Amino acid sequence: MTLDLLAFGVHPDDVELSCSGVLLVEKKRGKKTGIIDLTEGELGTRGTTETRRQEAADAASILNVDVRENLGLADGFFANDKASQLKVIEAMRAYRPDIIVCNAPEDRHPDPGRSASLVSDAAFLSGLRKIQTFRNGSEQEAWRPKYVLHYIQDRYLKPDFVVDVTDVFEQKLEAIRAFKTQFHNPDSDEPQTYISTPDFLDSIIYRYKMFGKMIGVKYAEGFISKKMIGIRNFDALILENT
Length: 242
Description:
Elements: E1 5-9, H1 14-28, E2 33-39, H2 49-63, E3 67-73, H3 82-95, E4 99-102, H4 110-125, E5 134-135, E6 138-139, E7 147-151, E8 161-164, H5 169-177, H6 198-215, E9 220-225
Parallel strand pairs: 1-2, 1-4, 2-3, 4-7
Antiparallel strand pairs: 5-6, 7-9, 8-9
């Protein structure tokens, strides 16, 4: 299966929190979308591996993605090394996306920055024919995405561009809330964490309102690109921006 847009997250729920609006926007445009989780978030304080698998499946259904996979790397301890790169390359070559979105270049948690480097490096290496990878017993062809973009997570980073997600924002929130063990639940008896406080989701919503205000819409998601972004004509601009 060939995907148009493939989102990588180091933990299940990274994609939902940070770029699920764009996945929904592109799906509404008839594009094929997918999610690759690098780890199962097994070091997380709340929930279990089993509950997080189910939550990820529930969120994938809400987002109507065409595929969701987990590469099974070690949460907290994976490295940007050959073994990890080959797993990421295999996924990229299997789905051959033109655009990849992945973790923020830096964040409060150390895993996203390491994940961002891993996925960025793998995207380049995936285009080298002499690197062999196999899936289902068949050798894969080299493939290099045209763009690798980074979404913005907990720590504020200035976006290079933002995307209007106003029309899909409630569905984005529904996908986030599918991770019931991770976010605020007054009935939970598990330890409180940074992201399970009542204020955390409020801060996320505020962030997307702030990005939206920058372009004159209600909600937007921000992205960083190391590569210059080009447009074919000015029709791509949001003209109601104030």
